[in-house]
Design goal:
With about 200 residues, the protein is α+β, with helices and mostly antiparallel strands. The chain has five helices and twelve strands. The C terminus is likely disordered.
C-alpha cells in the first residue's frame, strides 16, 4: 500500500541574507564564525562563498573585503551579508489549512516538518511566508510549535491582539492539550500483514 502526501516544492532562487555578529563572535575569523552560526552550510561552502565574493561585511555601514577580516577578525555588531545565487530549501508537506478566521485572529493547522518562521535553511517553506502567499499580510505569531510538530496555531492580525494573546499564553491562561500517537502502516506480503512499512508520529 502506498501513501501519498502533498509536498511543497520550491525552485531554487537568489537570496541575500544579513546576519549581525553577536558578542560571542568578537575577534573570530569570518569563516569560523559562519561555520558556528550556520553548521548546515559547512566550512567548504562558506570558504567558497568568501573567495567568490558572495560574502562581505559591513562595519559602520561601510563594506569590508571578507578575506581581510581573517587577519583582523570580526567585531560585535558587524553585519555579514551573504548572497546565495541558488538557494535550495528542504521540501515540506503542503498542508496548511485555515480552520477559522475572526476579525483579529486566524486559526491555522500546520503540518509537521514546517517551521513557523524563516530561519537557517527555510524561508519560502515557512508557515509565515506561506500565509503571506495566501494574502495574509502583517500577521503576528503569538505562540510557537516546533517544526517537527503538527497542530493548531493561533495567529494575531494586529499588534493589539498579538500583545493580548502573547500575555495570555505567558500567563498560562490558554490551555494547549498535546497528544501524541503512532500510526502504523502495514504492507500485505505473501497474504500476511506482517511487514511494518512506516511509522508516523502525529501530535495535536
Amino acid at each position: 500500500m502506498t501513501l501519498s502526501r502533498k509536498i511543497r516544492l520550491i525552485s531554487s532562487y537568489p537570496y541575500t541574507h544579513q546576519t549581525v555578529v553577536r558578542s560571542d563572535g568578537h575577534g573570530k575569523e569570518l569563516h569560523h564564525y559562519l561555520v558556528e552560526r550556520f553548521p548546515h552550510v559547512g566550512e567548504k561552502v562558506s570558504l567558497y562563498r568568501e573567495y567568490e565574493g558572495l560574502i562581505h561585511v559591513l562595519r559602520d555601514g561601510k563594506p569590508i573585503v571578507a578575506l581581510k577580516l581573517n587577519e583582523a577578525g570580526l567585531l560585535a555588531g558587524d553585519t555579514i551579508v551573504h548572497h546565495v545565487p541558488k538557494m535550495i530549501e528542504p521540501n515540506v508537506s503542503d498542508e496548511v489549512m485555515i480552520l477559522e478566521e475572526l476579525p483579529d485572529i486566524v486559526a491555522v493547522f500546520k503540518s509537521a516538518t514546517m517551521p513557523m518562521h524563516a530561519g537557517d535553511r527555510y524561508y519560502k517553506n515557512s508557515l509565515h511566508y506561506i500565509l503571506q502567499e495566501k494574502g495574509y499580510e502583517g500577521l503576528r505569531i503569538v505562540h510557537m510549535l516546533d517544526a517537527v510538530t503538527s497542530g493548531l496555531v493561533v495567529i494575531a492580525k494586529n499588534k493589539e491582539m498579538a500583545r493580548e494573546r502573547t500575555k495570555a499564553f505567558e500567563k498560562s491562561r490558554v490551555k494547549k492539550p498535546i497528544g501524541c500517537g503512532f500510526k502504523e502502516v502495514l504492507m500485505k506480503k505473501e497474504n500476511t500483514l506482517s511487514t511494518l512499512l512506516s511509522e508516523e508520529r502525529i501530535c495535536i
